[in-house]
């Protein structure tokens, strides 16, 4: 039961001002509300809405028409054995693999060409490869070394060009880096304890780092990425993902702006609920899904006509046809019969090609489940490679050009 405050402790909306003063205050409040609403309207006035998420998902590859499909088995030699793939980039008919503290280059047929860079503490050496990025304007590949605060630049043929030193902690917690402009580097960062700046923009010339977006997430002594490839470029437009969000964003020099919203019935986590995640980990995605919330997208890949969004915490992806502003979910049918050419491990693009890779045991398990009665040039090609490859071999890279 609430008690009534004595008059001396009550705070009236307006103190004892005259009538004209009250009118002025009301007008100021009204103008402030109008300006606030106008700013919010402007923020969302160009927001596109994509439909189709809530339709029944299809099996991976079902009803997806492919104009071109290539399989590239990466050559396995004593100098090219991969332990893992931290990042895969394709440029100028070359395939670049970041594997722990090595950067390796293969040609379009999968032949191993050369390693790039030398590990060490010298001027032209790196101590750790935090991430890599390609400069398409200069046709160079770059190694970011967070430990030594420097970026090493190489020609695509592996020739070392130069090194640039940066101020301390310029690349602190950088997970992936993308060239946003000739002189700007966009970084997606790890969440680590109370460091939760999801994105930062670094001036390549000056090293000045500007944070673009802070998350409400925290961890407990664990560096946790917010996704795999969370940025896509197409026609000079940047599209970015935020954790547990159903929208795609673009960025200015100082902030993020929503440009696409995926309409869905699933609940979206509030800032208050996100702030309660003081131990953000891989389990958070599954826990959130169990509670009926959307776990977000972990990667984005974009071609001229399509956007592929891999879901976090779910064994499925959402494929958007940009011409229709509509998409469809597809799930990985790991245990059942495989009747369709699947999109396997899509993680990057090469022009209008979606590019992916999976471990060899995943590929071999898949082809075993293709019924003999199912045929087709692409599936036959996949079956042939899958049966021939050994689990200890380097993996294959898959190139898909979807029908326009």
Automatic annotation (TrEMBL):
- Superkingdom of the organism of origin: Bacteria
One Pfam family from the record: DUF5128
Protein name as annotated:
6-bladed beta-propeller
Organism from which the protein derives: Odoribacter splanchnicus
Cite the source lineage.
Bacteria, Pseudomonadati, Bacteroidota, Bacteroidia, Bacteroidales
């Amino acid at each position: 039961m609430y008690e009534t405050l004595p008059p001396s402790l009550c705070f009236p909306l307006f103190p004892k001002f005259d009538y004209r003063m009250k009118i002025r205050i009301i007008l100021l409040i009204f103008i402030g509300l109008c300006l606030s609403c106008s700013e919010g309207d402007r923020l969302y006035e160009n927001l596109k809405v994509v439909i189709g998420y809530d339709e029944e998902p299809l099996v991976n590859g079902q009803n997806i028409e492919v104009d071109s499909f290539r399989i590239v088995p990466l050559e396995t030699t004593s100098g090219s054995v991969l332990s893992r793939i931290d990042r895969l980039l394709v440029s100028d008919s070359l395939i670049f693999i970041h594997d722990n503290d090595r950067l390796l280059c293969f040609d379009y047929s999968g032949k191993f060409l050369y390693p790039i860079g030398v590990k060490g503490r010298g001027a032209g050496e790196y101590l750790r490869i935090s991430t890599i990025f390609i400069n398409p304007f200069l046709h160079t590949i770059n190694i970011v070394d967070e430990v030594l605060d420097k970026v090493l630049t190489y020609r695509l043929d592996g020739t070392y060009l130069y090194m640039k030193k940066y101020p301390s902690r310029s690349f602190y917690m950088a997970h992936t880096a993308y060239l946003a402009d000739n002189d700007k580097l966009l970084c997606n960062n790890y969440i680590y304890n109370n460091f939760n700046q999801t994105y930062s923009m670094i001036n390549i010339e000056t090293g000045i780092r500007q944070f673009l977006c802070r998350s409400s997430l925290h961890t407990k002594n664990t560096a946790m990425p917010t996704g795999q490839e969370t940025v896509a470029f197409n026609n000079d437009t940047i599209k970015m993902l935020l954790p547990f969000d159903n929208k795609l964003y673009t960025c200015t020099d100082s902030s993020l702006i929503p440009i696409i919203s995926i309409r869905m019935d699933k609940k979206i986590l509030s800032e208050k609920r996100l702030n309660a995640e003081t131990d953000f980990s891989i389990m958070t995605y599954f826990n959130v899904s169990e509670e009926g919330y959307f776990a977000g997208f972990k990667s984005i890949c974009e071609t001229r006509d399509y956007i592929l969004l891999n879901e976090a915490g779910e064994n499925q992806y959402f494929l958007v046809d940009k011409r229709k502003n509509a998409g469809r979910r597809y799930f990985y049918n790991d245990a059942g019969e495989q009747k369709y050419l699947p999109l396997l491990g899509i993680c990057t693009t090469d022009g209008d090609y979606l590019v992916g890779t999976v471990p060899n045991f995943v590929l071999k398990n898949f082809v075993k489940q293709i019924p003999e009665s199912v045929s087709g040039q692409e599936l036959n090609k996949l079956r042939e490679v899958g049966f021939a490859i050994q689990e200890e071999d380097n993996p294959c890279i898959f190139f898909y050009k979807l029908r326009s």
